[in-house]
Specification:
Layout: E1 4-10, H1 16-25, E2 30-34, H2 47-52, H3 54-73, H4 88-113, E3 116-119, E4 121-124, E5 129-133, E6 139-149, E7 153-155, E8 168-169, H5 171-174, E9 183-187, H6 191-202, E10 206-211, H7 222-234, E11 238-241, E12 244-251, E13 254-261, E14 264-270, E15 272-275, E16 279-281, E17 314-316, H8 327-341, E18 355-357, E19 362-367, H9 370-375, E20 380-386, H10 391-395, E21 402-408, E22 414-421, H11 424-436, H12 441-446, H13 455-465
Parallel strand pairs: 1-2, 1-6, 2-3, 6-17, 8-15, 9-10, 9-15, 10-11
Antiparallel strand pairs: 4-5, 5-6, 7-16, 12-13, 13-14, 18-19, 19-22, 20-21, 21-22
Helix pairs in contact: 1-4, 1-8, 3-4, 3-6
This protein binds flavin-adenine dinucleotide.
């Protein structure tokens, strides 16, 4: 007799591990299967997010920003010091310790909640049976009332620049450089390319970003993407738009990259090249031919609005299904699925998933942008407040960027909050909370905000929607 669980989760990333913990909390017997091992060969829970994604990238972003500030940002505060140096292996080591702490923390949470952690490769068979191939090659089959597929995604490879894990790396390799490359190329001006490009640029690399599209940060509000391009370029990132990579050749410890742009064919040489052109769902050997679960035309597991697959009792969440590839989206889908398994009618508001790019300044938004709303024919009022007019931002010497609040011109309901500037991610979350409860710009404007805070910029932008900002001249008169 094979072991049977109420819920079996395949994959222990932020989608899978959160779903497993929630399921156990709701009294369901739960197992979670994970195959990823760390450099020491030990099972490491937490998926892309904790091991090679969100957390390690933010650790390096924070370290590199501190170095940059120590070099260039302290003198204005009257702090004079000389000879700041960077110990790259120590920085990368700190990152590894944070990862270790968090991934072992997930293992502790599994124990505390009674989740059975199983190591190996999980494959869904027909009849909600799951085959587990263990590290020693042995195979076990378990059964489940409900299966949650959460195998995540992996970096997309492109034929013109095959990753060799030495000179040409993907995002995982870019978290492990042991020295600052002198000339660093990045293919792709998306979130990951900009974040990792920023890390190494702050540490002294000459960074060139090759982006095939002519438009920078297509998903962002145009005002934000323009400001971002200006600021990041000023910081030293050479962002080439409309630059399509056509080939590359590794010569020893450097790589010559060929690309085309509006002026024709060009070549450029780098010491390291990061390929960051996006990620694709992981479905290799995940589904037996007779499992009944289908993939869509782009290779994602096909699910409905509630993450149910074509097989009753089988669900899929996170990067392996449609929608944005974000850890918080994966986790919330996990919670939604488990609560629905328990019979609740939980829904997820896909319209209010915040997006963040952790450059400096940070870039973040929630809801729709102005160009989308215009294309949909929605009349809007817009309020903008620059951090240059914020007392808190001035005190911190961090005055770049602005907050933009977009509201429906007829109802005043807030439809989008877009921020480029200090703590943008935290400010946008405040907008998201308001929007979840259907806030109007007037509501936000009537709330009391602590002084002096960066949040006051959100308050003022909301006031500016209807011409009522106090600390900036209003474009729109009341
Ligand atoms: C450099 C980088 C930075 C990022 N920064 C952010 C950020 O700041 N914020 C954010 O929201 N998102 C960020 N992301 C994206 C985020 O990491 C993903 O969206 C998120 O991890 C997806 O969660 P998931 O649970 O769907 O999958 P994953 O985290 O990919 O986890 C899936 C797990 O399943 C395991 N697995 C796969 N197949 C099997 C199988 N058959 N059997 C057993 N185990 C299996 C894998 O080993 C993996 O551990 C970043 C990604 C990268 C690469």
């Amino acid at each position: 007799m094979s072991q049977k669980f109420d819920v079996v989760v395949i994959g222990a990333g932020p989608g899978g591990y959160v779903a497993a913990i929630k399921a156990a909390q709701l009294g369901l017997s739960t197992a979670c299967i994970e195959k990823y091992t760390d450099k020491e060969g030990k099972l490491a829970l937490g998926g892309t997010c904790l091991n090679v994604g969100c957390i390690p990238s933010k650790a390096l972003l924070d370290s590199s920003w501190k170095f940059h500030e120590a070099q260039d940002g302290f003198a204005i505060h009257g702090i004079n010091h000389a000879g700041v140096t960077m110990d790259v292996p120590a920085m990368v080591g700190r990152k590894a310790n944070i990862v270790k702490g968090l991934t072992s923390g997930v293992a502790t949470l599994f124990k505390a909640n009674g989740v059975t952690s199983l190591q190996g490769h999980g494959k869904l068979l027909a009849g909600k049976k799951i085959e587990i191939t263990k590290p020693d090659g042995s195979v076990e089959v378990i059964e489940a009332e409900n299966v949650i597929l959460a195998p995540g995604s992996r970096p997309i490879d492109i034929p013109p620049a095959p990753v060799d894990n030495n000179v040409i790396v993907d995002s995982t390799g870019a978290l492990e450089f042991q020295a600052v490359p002198k000339r660093l190329g990045v293919i792709g001006a998306g979130v990951i390319g900009l974040e990792l490009g920023s890390v190494w640029s702050r540490l002294g690399a000459e960074v060139t970003v090759l982006e095939a599209l002519d438009t920078f940060l297509l998903a962002a509000d145009t005002a934000v993407s323009k400001e971002a391009l200006k600021t990041l370029t000023k910081q030293g990132l050479d962002i080439k738009l409309g630059a399509r990579v056509t080939g590359s050749k590794v010569n020893g410890e450097e790589v010559v990259v060929n690309y085309t742009d509006k002026d024709g064919e060009k070549t450029i040489t780098f010491d390291k090249l990061i390929v960051a052109v996006g990620r694709r769902p992981v479905t290799t050997d995940l589904l037996a031919a007779d499992s009944g679960v289908t993939l869509d035309e782009r290779g994602y597991v096909h699910v409905d609005d509630h993450c149910a697959t074509t097989v009753p009792g089988v669900y899929a969440i996170g990067d392996v299904v449609r929608g944005m590839m974000l850890a918080h989206k994966a986790s919330e889908e996990g919670i939604m699925v488990v609560e629905r398994i328990k019979g609740h009618k939980t829904q997820m508001n896909y319209d209010l998933i915040p997006s963040v790019i952790y450059t400096h300044p940070e870039i973040a938004w929630v809801g729709k942008n102005e160009q989308q709303l215009k294309a949909e024919g929605v009349e809007v009022n817009v309020g903008t407040f620059p951090f240059a007019a914020s007392g808190r931002a001035m005190a911190a010497n961090d005055t770049g960027g602005f907050v933009k609040v977009i509201a429906d011109a007829k109802t005043d309901r807030v439809l989008g909050v877009h921020v480029i500037g200090p703590s943008a991610a935290e400010l946008v979350q405040q907008g998201a909370i308001g929007m979840e409860f259907g806030t109007s710009a007037e509501d936000l404007g009537m709330m009391v905000f602590s002084h002096p805070t960066l949040s006051e910029a959100l308050h003022e932008a909301a006031l500016a929607v209807n011409g009522g900002a106090i600390h900036i001249a209003n474009r729109k008169k009341r």
